[in-house]
Ubiquinone biosynthesis O-methyltransferase, mitochondrial
Amino acid sequence: MVYAKNQLSWTLQIKPGVFNEYRTMWFKSYRMTFSYLNRIKNFRYPWVKLFSTSQTTVDSSEVKTFVALAHKWWDEQGIYGPLHSMNDLRVPFIRDTLLKTIPNHQPGKPLSGMKILDVGCGGGLLTEPLGRLGASVIGIDPVDENIKTAQCHKSFDPVLDKRIEYRVCSLEEIVEETPETFDAVVASEVVEHVTDLEAFLQCCCQVLKEPGGSLFITTINKTQLSYALGIVFSELIAGIVPKGTHTWEKFVSPETLESILESNGLSVQTVIGMLYNPFSGYWHWSENTTLNYVAHAVKSRVQEHPMSAEFVLKRETEELQATACTNPAVHEELKK
Ligand SMILES: C[S@@+](CC[C@H](N)C(=O)[O-])C[C@H]1O[C@@H](n2cnc3c(N)ncnc32)[C@H](O)[C@@H]1O
């Protein structure tokens, strides 16, 4: 028995000749029932409101950590140094991915005309370079002190002042006023801090333009290595990030992320590993995703969203009937 990668259905692999037709029938109905139940679980009608603004994805204990460090965002040698140097990878990655969707772009301002939402923008370390590339960026963060730092820093650059807007809020607070608004949503090093990952990703999906809106996520995989290096080494031994910054249980594997995204109508295009060298202070790309990784997903059309449960049931019943028609023994069983 295999649990499919997108976690939408259980699949039974039956070795030919091992089971007779009757058993094959039984397994098909079994598979159909599982698939049906799974799809009912994952399917959401597009017109159903997905997230109540009375709920929140903000974890108050996480907020305390970020409040205490809010004045340190722009210290390149300080606690947020790794996020500064992560820009060497993430900014070109976002730029080049988005450029594939723009036929003619202005030299110097290649992302001009694009609307980007930077969720959990912190002090604006990623928001600013995206603004410099010409995009109109809204940076949101639930921590007031972070937004104050970000506002203050961008005010030194009059060009950025016009292109970037910062707001103190969570994503779920703006989802109703900005449905299908953004060409891209960026949540960099944020999902490992939220309380309800599924709700957070649903909101990301809702504010993306349809079809074609791009979601960029950078985060930490949930592996033994990420526990050893991300928490024990980085926080407790080397002090690269303050103790208590991360909770291993909140880390997420690319597979889980992909499954949640796909059940929300996003199709994952790319997942690439990123490795940080604490001695050089630089990041590099890697095929290895056991620690940090970036994921890019694109919002599909409504028709491509998860199929309705009724449709799945109808299709699988038809398959079953087709098997019955071509096989007299199975046909007889069905008649009983
Ligand atoms: C590690 S920092 C990353 C900051 C920024 N994205 C960057 O990479 O430079 C995580 C940020 O997420 C914010 N955050 C935490 N929980 C959040 C939530 N539920 N929704 C949005 N932002 C959140 C924190 O306040 C913090 O600024």
Summary: Confidence is low (pLDDT under 50) at residues 1-53, 303-313.
